[in-house]
Amino acid sequence: EAKSIARVTKGTSVFLPLVIAYQFYNAKNFTSANEKVAEYFKSPNTPLCLCIANFGIKTALLAQDYHDALFIITMFKKRKKENPFLEEEIESLFALNSYKELIEAFRENLSKLKDNFDVLVKVGLSLYSLQKFKEAEAILRNIPLKKELPSFEDKKREYSGVINEISVLEKRGDLNEKEISDLGYAYLFNENYQKAESTFMKLLSIAGA
Q1: What distances in angstroms separate CA 118 from CA 14, 31, 77, 86, 145, one per listed residue?
Q2: Are residues 50 and 84 in contact, defined by beta-carbon separation less than 8 angstroms?
Q3: I need a labelling partner for 93 at 20 to 30 A (CA). Which of 2, 10, 70, 138 fits?
């Protein structure tokens, strides 16, 4: 990998960091890829288009560098006067515990995000973290999962088996990703929002590893 990258000819092109970043990315070295992406985006007068921004944000998220992801999103919003990366912005703000900013971004884009399951879960848990419990419960109890929406109680019944096994699952140290996800939703629909939040954060960390 190092020899391949070393063969990239050094030059004056502003795109050179991106070329190297793509090589690191294809080698699944997301940390190094993100370092080159950051070098590109933090250079003055960086050319910017949707494709380049998308690659940069995706790389930053895979490297779990949420500050860099937000930096690119903010740059794109300022230059292009639009934000096609709302979900990525919410994900980054949630990972950084920037709950107030997350709620603000959600409210500003309510029409686009009001039916997004993953976003609504993060909004509900963020409200809970801000101790806005009634607002959090209102969001979490009305999360749409499909066109014919099940109620909160429907989902609670659906996860009743996992809810009954919470104490058993908590004692295990070898849960796979699906079991962690199920445990998170069991906490959520059992209205233990604090543990739901910490479980989803753990799942997010594993997914980005």
Answers
A1: 36, 25, 22, 12, 10
A2: yes
A3: 138
Yes or no: say if 47 and 78 are a contact pair by the CB < 8 Å rule: no
Both tokens of residue 194?
């604090």
> Which is higher by pLDDT, 138 or 150?
138
Q: Which residue has the tokens 């960086």?
A: 46
DSSP state of 12: S
Burial (CB count within 10 angstroms: exposed 0-12, middle 13-18, buried 19+), residue 92: buried
Instruction: Tell me the C-alpha distance between 132 and 124, whole Å.
Output: 9
Instruction: Write the pLDDT tens digit of every residue in 148-196.
Output: 556 677 778 888 999 999 999 999 888 888 898 889 888 988 888 888 8
Rounded Cα distance, 143 and 121, in Å: 7
Q: What angle do CA 194, 195, 199 make, to 5 degrees?
A: 125
- Outline where 81-132 has alpha helix (H): 86-95, 99-108, 110-113, 117-129
Residue 55's closest CA among 88, 81, 12, 98?
Answer: 88
Query: Is the C-alpha dihedral spanning 124, 99, 133, 160 positive or negative?
Result: positive
- Report how far residue 97's alpha carbon sits from residue 127's, in angstroms, rounded to the nearest whole number: 11
